[in-house]
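[SOLVED] Need 3D model of a two-part complex

Original post:
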Amino acid sequence: MLVIVALSFSLAIMISIPAGVVANQESTQNLAQRLNSTIIETEQQINQSTTLIECSTSSGSMFSGPPSDMSGPPPGMFDRPGSSFTREEFYMNESVVGAIGSIVGVKDVVPFLVKSSSESTQETIATPMGDFTVSRPLYTITGVCLNSSFIDEYYVLPTSITAGRNLREGDSGVLLMSLNLTEYYGVGVGSEVDVNGASFMVVGIYDQAGQNSMETRGVYMNLTDAQTTTDETGNVSRLDVYAENVSVVDTINTQIQTMYSNEINAREITVSTYVDRLANLQSQQTRYTELLNNTESTVAQTQSVATQEIIVALAATSLIVLFVMLYTVRERTKEIGTLKAIGFSSWNVMSQFMLEGIILSLAAGIVGIGIGTVGAPILSGVLLPAVNPFGSRSTGFQTGGPASAISLGPSTASAVVTPTIMLLALGAAVLLGALGSLYPAWRASRTRPAEAMRYE
Amino acid sequence: MSEAVSEAVLKTEKVTKVYTMGKREVRALSDLNLQVNKGEFVAIMGPSGSGKTTLLNVLGCLDKPTAGKVVLDGVDVSKLPERELYKIRRNKIGFIFQTFNLLPYLSACENVELPMENTKRPKNERRQRARELLKIVGLSGREDHRPYRLSAGEQQRVAIARAMANDPAIILADEPTGNLDTENKYEVVRLLANLNINRGTTIVIVSHDSQVASHTERMLLLKDGTIAKEKQGLHLVKKKLMCPYCGSKIQPNDERCPSCRKRL
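Solution:
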């Protein structure tokens, strides 16, 4: 009985360690994945943003002020201005595209038209500082210049398509809709929808999760379609001006400022560059890379500790089986002799004892799985180093990039014994039982039948 | 004599067994010749150290002779390797031990079934045979009892039933009454005698108890590893169903002579 308890404990340890490792791996993999994608995203931001000069009108600007009913969250994180189709707004004429495009050093000028509906809806947003209820336009139309080189090179369209297809060059009379809007309207890919009196077909749906706020209730379509639908023919609200390289960004910026000084002074156009954010992005990048390395090294460390512990547990288990079976064989020498005297072959005796060893460790294995399943979180917590790449930081932190905000918290891995681990443990129990009883069983099979004559 | 040879179940020819204890050689058996015929009830007697147990081990294929031949049921077992011997032990020999050697965690019936375990007999047939054998040794109704719930005499009777399980050519008993009180001793001896008379079972017992040995038909006295003396036992007259004291007619089951009341 004591044997079973001892055995089942070492098997429980054997079970909870892989469970902990798996849980750790899952959570760290998750973390590493998020870190990796953030690193890639930041890198793209660094590459693109720094050559980007953004010219926006007050309605289409990316970083406009917060709505009047909010004071807590930082600007730009949660909302678009409450513009509507009816409110008077300022738009740039399309001719600006050509004018800016002719400035020396400008590589591309990508025009957008962003316009929101006059109807609005209440939305609750969860933030680290609590839940906020905000008023939002029911939908926001973004007209995109569907030039295939723009689509390929810059972020002009959402990337996470969940159904249908993304927009492409030459599309007309079709649109791309965010998932929550399709749910709100009850439409799907192929549905005809009415936008301000014009009929469009939904060709694709994108997942707004992780996108910036403009896109959460967004509709994307051809620039020309958007202009017609929103009665803004010839108008654009935002220009993404891309410089050939970072060094000419300032010059181009100055030229644009000069060319449109009146509009800029009237605050109708905002011109902003991202060169100043380069350092910030780069330090973020360094921090992410550091975190990723930390995570990876902790995982490696956890695994090596786990490997050592599993080896110890395996050795302990088979040693226990070995000694128990040796003792049993010793104690039952007379019985074994009797069995051989009445006609059991060496093989019969050997298989008998092997079977006993296997049953013993299998029984212990089942008890061990019980203990392991219940005690895995505690046991693996005790036995494994915790994965926390954030060092002493106990709270999560947020980073706000121009395109996304990502939240990273320390991993709270909780070991769960999966059926795979259970099966593996049972297999290991059988194997260890067989291994541990191999020598004792062999010893038993060598017992001379004359031992049965021993008087006691 | 030629008739006797054809009937021989067990025969040894110049069997010698030498144990080496360190540098010293102990000659347990030396040039021992022995023949047991079919249906015989033989006792091997001798003081301790005379080689009784060694002889029984050699006869029962539990040990190999250093030299000489042991022929059991026509097979020279002294030449067989261990991987063949277990079949001989299972099919040709039934063992009865002084300490009964029943498996404590098996019932009486399961203990009797044990020698049939690895034979081709189907399970239900084994069970049925075990029950029959237990009935023969007078233990009907005790089939499901574990050894600890049986008296010493009863345990030895289970062991006798076990020895008969595979219908062996010979039953070898090592001090079968050594651990029994007088009452049970005679019961076991009578049982063995009756098996010999009624079923024709060939039995060899080793005993230093001359009273027990006298109930066999032939007593062999072992001395210094060889047979020194041979004597007739009471069993012979019992087989002839005649009282050795007064000569009146007796039954095989009789404990005492019906006319002179002397213990048989």
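Edit: The mean pLDDT of chain B is 87.
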